[in-house]
Amino acid sequence: MRTLLITGPGGSGRTTVSAATALTAARDGVDTLVLSADRTDSLGAALGVPTGAEPVPVAPRLTAWRPDAAAGFRADLTAFQDRAGNVLDLLGASRLDTEEVTPLPGAEELALLRALRDAALSERFELLVVDLPPAPQALALLALPEELRRYLRRLLPPERQAARALRPVLGRLAGVPMPAEWLYETAARWDVELAAVAAVLADRATRVRLVAEPGPAGADAVRSAALGLAVRGLAVECLVAGRVLPEAAADSWLAGPVAQQRKTLDEWRETYAVHPAAHLGRDPRGLDDLAALAVPGANPASAPVEWPVTDRLTEDGVLVWHIPLPGAIREELDLIRLGDELAVTAGPFRRVVPLPSALRRCTVDGAALRDGELRIRFAPDPALWPRER
Q1: Residues 226 and 359 reside in one and the same domain
Q2: pLDDT digit string (tens) for 263-284?
Q3: Of the candidates 204, 227, 323, 210, which has an alpha carbon nearest to the alpha carbon of residue 272?
Q4: 341 Cβ neighbours under 8 A, 6+ residues apart
Q5: CA 93, 94, 97, 98: dihedral to nearest 10 degrees?
């Protein structure tokens, strides 16, 4: 199954474009699921069919789903209280009744990740269209599975679980209680669930579609989002320019906004495949309005993001790791070697990535940013690099 993630600045029409994209794909004969986690049913409003906790058919080959974050949050809390019952009793804590629980901030995003995982594991659909939150929140959400897995493995290393038979003895020797078995079991379950989501995001068939209104604010938002996506290794499939105004006479009050939109569109076309979506003069409602936007379905031919390593040992005595970072500014770049990992910071975005196996036996020899690509030079470490005979 292919996955298309759709995001952009707030108010740009992300949900409408998600619905229109899914409709186009379905009418092209692709079994499609469109997924959203908005607390209000903006997806249903765009499709003209209410959506909710259970997937609902909208049109031939098109299904919509808006998972219930509240129900998922209550189920998780109940499961946690059951597993941690002994600890809660020891502390004298009163258990929460599920009916008195309201979802905490972020519950919608977590429900979306879980639904994304469940949909990806399903064999019912060929295409999954995901209506993500606005770009800043979406970028944080996309980083969550990978970062949480790294934290869990650092705080509760799986290899320590192998010493469960020795835990009481180790606790007495250390003078402090050792983590209970349920904690490791919970961490292992979370790791499996997070790994499933991370696998969907890392899949070579996963793409991102950006949505923005052409103009100065939209251009800034696209530039920032594209950099954040590049740090995550995600490819921008295309850019949908929303609410594009029709051409206007030179003496019309629309001439200025139209000229501004035209300038931004020309700049975007230098980098992206741009698809203008016309301003209908109203908020699109229903399948006919969505079809009138003429938003294309998913493009399977768009290229994935690659972070290749080139061998220049013969010429320069180094290996070079190429990391595309479009829109990055040299002064806002930072690199830190952390053992077999590299922390890459570009502006407000940061990611800790494992080094390719060959580079783990090297030392960083320098880095340069050229034409939107970060090139990091690695020199073989004589103490680790295989010697020539």
Answers
A1: no
A2: 999 999 999 999 999 999 899 9
A3: 210
A4: 352, 353, 354, 355
A5: -10
Is the Cα torsion angle 301, 302, 304, 309 positive or negative in sign?
A: positive
C-alpha atoms less than 13 angstroms from C-alpha of 13 in its C-beta half-sphere: 27
Task: Domain of residue 123: give its range.
Answer: 2-69+104-292
The number of folded domains in the chain is 2
pLDDT tens per residue across span 188-226: 777 888 888 888 888 888 999 999 999 999 999 999 999
Whether the per-residue pLDDT at 172 is higher than 90: the answer is: no
Instruction: Fill in the amino acid letter for 241.
Output: A
Pull the structure tokens for residue 55: 């997937």
Residue spans of beta strands (DSSP E) within the chain: 2-7, 32-36, 56-59, 62-65, 127-131, 206-212, 235-244, 274-278, 309-312, 318-324, 333-338, 341-346, 349-354, 362-370, 373-380
Exposed (0-12), middle (13-18) or buried (19+): which is 135, by Cβ within 10 Å? buried
Which residues are CB-contacts of 315 (< 8 A; sequence separation ≥ 6)? none
Q: How many residues does the chain have?
A: 389
Instruction: Find where tokens 């938002």 sit.
Output: 221
